[in-house]
Amino acid sequence: MKLEEIKNILQCEVLTPEMDLSLEVNTVLASDGMSEILAFHSPGALMITGLTNIQSVRTADIADVRAIVYIRDKRPHEKTVDLARQKKIPVLATSLGMFDVCGLLREKGLKGAM
Amino acid sequence: MVEELLKKTFTIFSRNFDKAGENSTEIKALLKSLNFEPDIIRRLVVVAFEAEMNVVMYADGGQMDFVITDEDIRIDIRDQGPGIPDIQQAMQEGYSTATDEMREMGFGFGMGLPNIKKNSDFLNIESRVGKGTTVSAGIRLNANA
Q1: What is the pLDDT of residues B64-113, one digit of tens each?
Q2: Which of A3, A49, B36, B127 could form a disulfide with B84 if both were Cys (CB 3.0 to 4.6 A apart)?
Q3: How far apart are CA A48 and CA A79, in angstroms?
Q4: pTM (predicted TM-score)
Q5: Which chain A positions have a beta carbon within 8 Å of B107's beta carbon?
């Protein structure tokens, strides 16, 4: 599924508008625990998290995550978004909570990477 | 005799969460530039990152050596910190002594050491309470050939 489609399903705001949303993701890692994200090998996955600090991007980079969706209307600090830009990881934000985000994406065919 | 091909030493600063993980990111870039297999890079970098985060969170600082030999790639970490009283217990998934601050950073859910173990071919932890901990972990290159 393209990031563009995910953006529409979750009614996301795109925090890195200059980045390409035609990238494809097929699996999802969803957690607020960064070691949980690292525990599963799924390069190219979409990461869904409520953790908005700089470690979320660091972890995404280490885990070869393709894009991040921040949930519950949380907005990462500018330095977090800057690091994501540097690492070429598109960043989106939605007002939906974890359950609804996962439910909606699962319904549309995305699979859990865990 | 084991031949050391590359060694790089990194300093890890205590509780500097903004910079935490930068060393592991550098190791990742280095391994990529040396054309290692993606799976080897991923495993070693998860090991380095989790170990680095442990030092940032728990210790008063430390050093990380990144070493490539003709037999393995590994990280050797030495920290000055509280030490681990019961290593067996610390290795159990879910066991954690993390503070709220650490959990707010997304760490301290009792997965760090288990992630290191899962992604390494060898792991040695030595710790002295009140002094510090040394961790040596890595990937054997011949086992992955």
Answers
A1: 999 999 999 999 999 999 999 999 999 999 999 999 989 988 998 899 99
A2: B127
A3: 19
A4: 0.94
A5: 33-35, 55
Fold of B4-140: Heat Shock Protein 90 (3.30.565)
A32 interfaces chain B, CB cutoff of 8 Å: yes
| Domain locations along chain B | 4-140
Distance of CA A65 to the CA centre of its chain: 8
- CB of A54 within 8 Å of a chain B CB? The answer is yes
Q: Is B51 exposed, middle or buried (0-12, 13-18, 19+ CB in 10 A)?
A: buried
Residues of A in contact with B111 (CB under 8 A): 33, 35-36, 38-39
Q: What pLDDT does residue A52 have? A: 96
- Report the half-sphere exposure of A35 (CA within 13 A, side-chain side): 29
Q: What percent of chain B has pLDDT over 70?
A: 98
Chain A touched by B18 (CB under 8 Å):
yes
B37 touches chain A (CB under 8 A): no
